[in-house]
Write a structure and sequence with these properties.
By secondary structure, the chain is an alpha/beta fold. It contains two helices and five strands; from the N terminus they run βαβαβββ. InterPro entries: Chorismate_mutase_AroH, RutC-like_sf.
Length: 122
């Protein structure tokens, strides 16, 4: 079994707690579903948010999910590059899996689909 990185990103329309928590949870649920991983398969989750998202920590959404309370989470601010996608939340899950690198399904939702047009989100 190897540790694989699984990427994902999404956006919100407003800097409000509920919008951030809902979008984060939706993104994580889609990543988990498409990659068939369980919380006990996850070594850690690194979360970034753009500097315009200050209403809450996106990690709170994950921490509230059943069976995710023991998964190590870390939030950080995304590098503030001029012209970059605003109101964006990014996840990097480190998962223990037998899947090969090319079998990993990265998930990009809402406006974040523009970040990786080379990847098709199912």
């Amino acid at each position: 079994m190897k540790v694989r990185g699984i990427r994902g990103a999404t956006t919100v329309e407003v800097n409000e707690e509920e919008a951030i928590l809902t979008a984060t949870r939706q993104l994580l649920e889609e990543i988990v579903e498409h990659n068939k991983v369980l919380p006990e398969d996850i070594a850690s989750v690194f979360i970034t948010a753009t500097s315009d998202l200050t209403a809450t920590f996106p990690a709170m959404a994950i921490r509230r999910m059943p069976d995710w309370e023991a998964v190590p989470l870390m939030c950080a601010t995304e590098i503030d590059v001029p012209g970059s996608l605003p109101l964006c939340i990014r996840l990097l899950l480190h998962a223990n899996t037998d899947r090969g690198q090319k079998e990993i399904r990265h998930v990009y939702l809402r406006e974040a689909r523009n970040l990786r047009p080379d990847l098709t989100t199912p």
